[in-house]
Design a protein that fits this description.
Number of helices of chain B: 6
CATH architecture of chain A: 3-Layer(aba) Sandwich
Radius of gyration of chain B: 21 Å
Shape of chain B: globular
Structural class of chain A: alpha/beta
Oligomer: heterodimer
Order of helices and strands of chain B: HEEHHEEEEEEEEEEEEEEEEHHH
Number of domains of chain A: 1
Strand content of chain A: 25-35%
Distance between the termini of chain B: 27 Å
Number of strands of chain A: 12
Largest sheet of chain A: 6 strands, mixed
CATH topology of chain A: Rossmann fold
Chain lengths: ~260, ~400
């Protein structure tokens, strides 16, 4: 049983505070949905946990079974057992998926001999044509192919915790089903703990959340069971988020919050 | 540069070669005396950092026969031999190939011919498709003065050939002057893959000059990996309607290495196309400059030319300059150029690191991937795998 504990997490971009004290505990096998309006800081939370450059952590902690992640390099966080499925997976020309996962296995002292086989079987599970595995990572992939590719990596790396940053965006209904099923299987196969960041209830119809958190203004405002997501579907975020569009930042934001 | 260059006098006695070659050399020598010596005060050489290069003793015409080796069995329809063995019309045509590619603005082209004892000529008969690549090795000299070597490739009409040129040898203090002249007759297809992986004390000045006739194509792939300093010039002269040229290069700088690349895509006939993709990565205190010109002549309507040079700086102590130029004398053309110098893409690095890949490995993967668009051009001749592993080793060794 592992535990990811986020306490009082605060972070800024430039001099603008985005995360304003986030508290969250996720245990092995649990699925937590973080739902919130655009601009609420959901993606910042994902990025800060993983150590994405561009954010300044101003307070709080993120501990994985007692190990403070905030002081670690990005790759060390990954090796410690955290995985981020990105909202916009990056194109890396000339680099194939197998090379990356082999390098990751070698760095972690794991056997890299089975990587190719694992990648192929994971690709089959989410319906990603194997021909994509030989191509440059994410280059000329459709939105759905990119998200399937993220899910393949999740299956091969078998992290203890996965943050899925809007993994439902860009997915058609079939793909959404395959991806959600793969993640849900992982919660029993190796007790993966999941933080699923999403704007819509659509994902949660396929990936069943144990806990739903309403996230707005840089923190969790309310937590509850799956019924909270259903309620959101009906009422929208109006209750939690400022309705006035003028509340949005005037300048274009360099990061997708 | 060459401020200390001691030239033979115009009427100096050079080692015996056939009259036609002697007359080529004598002509080059006369022109060399008239030409301005290369000097870093001149625009052409200002980035080259060459003032400390001494060229006091070019091995002017030392010994008979080419210094260049060709491997492999004799091939049907392919004549390989020293230029001095040619006579009659064949000799005339080699002489013309050598002379027509001289450029008074490029004294090195003149020096290389003056100093040349005997070029190697590869002559492919019209209509002949050569299945296997022809491999040429240019050995690095013995460390005394400068060495010149030349390869002339003549591809007859509608022939098809690939020539792999490797510069290799001991790591000695030397200056290598290498010239590759490619004459592509109509509808012929020629690929030149050049791998320069010389030692860290070798300086190398080279040029690849191609003349491409109607509906013919010339592809040049160049890998500049080793050497203390390299200066490489590429000329693709598209002189026949529908001719095309493809120029690709990777250059990798570590330590105090310097790379100077200069390209000319010359469109002199209608409906010609050229594509240039150059990629460099610099680590340590290495330096690189790229200068490229797309020239579209008055008669070259329907030209389609692209030029892209991108450089990744892996260390703050590196220096790079990328200078693209266009010179267009016709309205009905399409030309595009792109140029970028910058650090490794932060998003790409983060993406790989977020999978558990350590920073130095992520960097190596990103750079290798960045080079892949060019390295793929070496796969056909089988050089690709070795090049990839050399690139990886060099990046792994760091600065």
């Amino acid at each position: 049983m592992s535990e990811l504990v986020i306490e009082g997490l605060r972070a800024s971009v430039g001099d603008r505070e985005i995360l304003r004290g986030v508290d969250l505990v996720v245990r092995s096998g649990e699925v937590h949905a973080i739902m919130g309006p655009n601009g609420s800081g959901k993606s910042t939370l994902s990025g800060v946990i993983m150590g994405r450059p561009g954010y300044t952590v101003t307070g709080g902690s993120v501990r994985l079974d007692g190990t403070e992640l905030l002081g670690l390099d990005v790759w060390e966080r990954a090796q410690a057992g955290v995985f981020l499925a990105m909202q916009y997976p990056v194109e890396v020309p000339g680099v194939a998926l197998g090379e990356v996962l082999t390098a990751a296995a070698n760095a972690g002292g794991r056997d890299s001999g089975s990587v190719a086989e694992l990648v192929a079987s994971e690709a089959d599970r989410v319906g990603l044509d194997r021909s994509f595995l030989l191509r440059s990572l994410n280059v000329d992939f459709s939105g759905g192919e990119k998200k399937r590719n993220e899910t393949v990596q999740l299956g091969v790396l078998r992290p203890r915790f996965a943050i899925l940053d809007e993994i439902d965006s860009g997915l058609d209904v079939d793909a959404l089903g395959q991806v959600a099923r793969r993640v849900e299987d992982a919660t029993t196969e190796w007790s993966l703990g999941v933080i699923a960041v999403t704007h819509y209830n659509r994902l949660l119809e396929q990936l069943h959340a144990d806990v739903v958190h309403i996230f707005a203004g840089g923190k969790i405002l309310q937590s509850g069971g799956p019924e909270l997501a259903t309620q959101l579907e009906i009422s929208g975020y109006g209750e939690w988020a400022p309705a006035e569009p003028s509340a949005a930042p005037l300048e274009p934001d360099p990061f997708d919050l | 540069m060459f401020s200390t260059l001691t030239l033979p006098s115009p009427d100096a006695a050079l080692p015996p070669v056939p009259d036609w070659l002697a007359s080529c050399r004598a002509d080059a020598l006369r022109r060399l005396h008239d030409a301005a010596p290369p000097n870093s005060a001149a625009e052409e050489w200002r980035y080259s950092d060459v003032d400390d290069v001494e060229l006091e003793s070019v091995a002017f015409g030392a010994g008979p026969g080419p210094s260049v080796r060709v491997e492999g069995p004799a091939l049907d329809g392919v004549t390989v031999g020293a230029a001095s063995e040619f006579d009659g019309p064949a000799a005339d045509s080699v002489a013309q190939a050598l002379a027509s590619t001289l450029d008074d603005g490029d004294p090195i082209s003149l020096v290389s011919l003056v100093g040349l004892s005997d070029p190697l000529v590869i002559d492919v008969a019209p209509g002949r498709t050569v299945a296997e690549p022809i491999r040429v090795t240019i050995p690095v000299g013995d460390g005394i003065g400068a060495h010149t070597a030349a390869v002339v490739v003549r591809a007859g009409a509608n022939s098809d050939v690939e020539v792999v040129v490797s510069s290799d040898g001991d790591d000695v203090e030397s200056l290598e002057i290498v010239r590759i002249v490619v004459d592509v007759a109509s509808a012929a297809r020629v690929r030149i893959a050049e791998v320069c992986n010389v030692g860290s004390r070798v300086r190398r000045i080279s040029s690849v000059v191609g003349r491409v006739e109607r509906d013919a194509s010339l592809s040049i792939a160049h890998a500049a990996l080793g050497g203390a300093a390299t200066r490489t010039r590429f000329d693709a002269r598209l002189v026949g309607r529908g001719a095309s040229g493809d120029l690709r290069a990777v250059y990798l700088g570590t330590g105090d290495q310097r790379h100077d690349l200069r390209t000319f895509q010359r469109h002199e006939a209608p409906d010609t196309s050229s594509n240039l993709v150059f990629k460099g990565a610099l680590d340590g205190r290495s330096r690189a400059v790229y200068t490229g010109l797309i020239h579209v002549g008055h008669d070259a309507r329907g030209t389609n030319a692209t030029q892209s040079n991108r450089i990744i700086k892996l260390s703050d102590d590196t220096w790079a300059e990328s200078v693209p130029n266009l010179e267009i004398h016709h309205n009905d053309v399409r030309c595009a150029h792109a140029s970028a110098v910058g650090p490794i893409d932060e998003d790409q690095r983060f993406y790989l690191e977020s999978r558990g890949v350590p920073p130095e490995v992520a960097e190596r993967l990103v750079v290798a991937g960045f080079f892949e668009e060019v390295l793929g051009a070496f796969d056909r001749s089988g050089e690709g795998a070795a090049l990839r592993s050399t690139v990886n080793e060099r990046l792994g060794a760091g600065a």
